């Protein structure tokens, strides 16, 4: 079995979880870590047994035998760091939100295609067993015609104007950080909306503290989506059909099962595998794609990510949120 050498660009909070998750894959190992701080890179590499640590992102291109790079820097940096790796011939798994806006993501996609190098958005939710089972149940008509999807994601964030979540220069706000999850799940199950309306409440820095969205679809379905940095919400997703309801159990973006409640019947709990944090599911999929010589994922194609970025742009336009330099 071939072993895949992973590199992490940006050893922050999520990168630690990703590195821990790689240990669940027998044919994956952390090979290199890149940070703006050599000390931070070395500390991270020592913790996870990576043989290479570099103190600049550019130096990563000189590290031999890298099979894939996980870009885990703030949203505002995804575009530049993904282009750096792609132009160096390195396959990229880039954290969501994919970029700052659709213009940036289109350049990333065009560069990947031009170079013939693999690129995928790191939307780990897509690869959870519970999500695949839910898609199967909806596709086979188990809950009938889907009429509505409701999803929320919220937690209380300490207001620190310079921190990632609230800093406009780092593309802060609830929408790009967590609102993207309800938007993603609605697109995954319902497709591209015909119409979308959004409202928000700004934080002191001008980014969205709270964002609420309603969407309608050609099928006749609707969706109500919500994100906030000001309250702990249930972090759930419910899909309402003409024959019953489907609940993703646990936090929906990292679901551990499904509760199926068909009209007139007792609820049925369908447990689904969830190991560790769950980042290894997306890593495994990337490895399978690379093994097959693919340059994009059939389960999370680049067009999907581009359309998702376009929706985020539309929502930000409606709520009046622009980031520096746009």
From TrEMBL:
Keywords: Oxidoreductase
Domain of life of the native organism: Bacteria
Domain GFO/IDH/MocA-like oxidoreductase, first and last residues per copy: 132-246
Residue intervals of the Gfo/Idh/MocA-like oxidoreductase N-terminal domain: 4-122
Stored SUPFAM superfamilies: Glyceraldehyde-3-phosphate dehydrogenase-like, C-terminal domain, NAD(P)-binding Rossmann-fold domains
UniProt cross-references to Pfam families, sorted A to Z: GFO_IDH_MocA, GFO_IDH_MocA_C3
Family according to the record: Belongs to the Gfo/Idh/MocA family.
Record protein name field: Gfo/Idh/MocA family oxidoreductase
Gene source species: Hymenobacter volaticus
